[in-house]
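2024-03-11 09:14:02 DEBUG pipeline.ingest accepted 1 chain
2024-03-11 09:14:02 DEBUG pipeline.ingest length=316
2024-03-11 09:14:03 DEBUG pipeline.predict start
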Amino acid sequence: MKKFLKKVFAIAMVSIATVPVQGQDLLARQAPIDRKMKAVDSVALNRLIQFEQMASPAADLYMDWENFYAHRETALPDTFKIDLRGFCMPTDSRVLTSNFGARWGRQHKGLDIKVYIGDTIRAAFSGKVRVVRNEGARKGYGKFVVIRHYNGLETIYGHLSEWLVEENQDVRAGDPIALGGNTGRSTGSHLHFETRLCGVALNPALMFDFRNQDVTGDFYTFRRATYPHESAQATRLRGVGGSASANVGEDQLYSQNTSNKRSTVASRSSRFHKVQRGETLTSIARKRNTTVAAICKLNRISKTMKLRPGQILKYN
């Protein structure tokens, strides 16, 4: 009887010992399946998010999507982080002709960049075209485009001569969207460029450095409390007449004096050349009485760089 009981006890102990092992084997076999299901769920979720973003970029910031108003101001968040990665400069021009802010007794809501009629204008970030309209001769933006981006910004491109996109069209950063022009309330061919958050105009100089053809960083964090000071500082650094800005040369610049009256100045400290079809660095250097090496140094380019018609080069 004792032998029998010992045998039963031994079998019971072995059975109890094997249960966790079998359970662990089952969990081990199930783990890859769980990981696959999680991956499938993540892919499906990402696709859903992408689909919703394509339908209405930055929908968490904007209440609706319409194609009529250029902008409608709504409540700004106290802070908002704007992703500036994946950008494209809207134009190759490095020449600013008017700052953001007070001008001629009114607020100028963007930057004016010198372009010529027919120059290519590109989408600054990926997003969706919301408005393509013409405000008419001598009025406002003239022909303009508004794009809503996935990073929360809306960009406005004004005084265009031609549109290359349609409303509700998806665009990628760098896609051609229009041609430069002189339509609307404009005293000469240029691009009026605005950056807006929740319909409120923010100083583009906080995010874009046109002289260096770059953004100011990977991110810009809007803070309601410090924005006015930061905007003024950005204009001093990267605006017309700022320590890091390029002068127009023979083109006239508009500067704001203390009484906000319009004054015209001709700066000759820097000069620019617009590349024509068939021109080379050698022919430009000869024409402008300088050297290829000097042009390359001023524009931070190599001697073998292929020039594009319409490209702006600094030569002095």
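2024-03-11 09:14:41 DEBUG pipeline.report The longest helix spans residues 2-55.
2024-03-11 09:14:41 DEBUG pipeline.predict end
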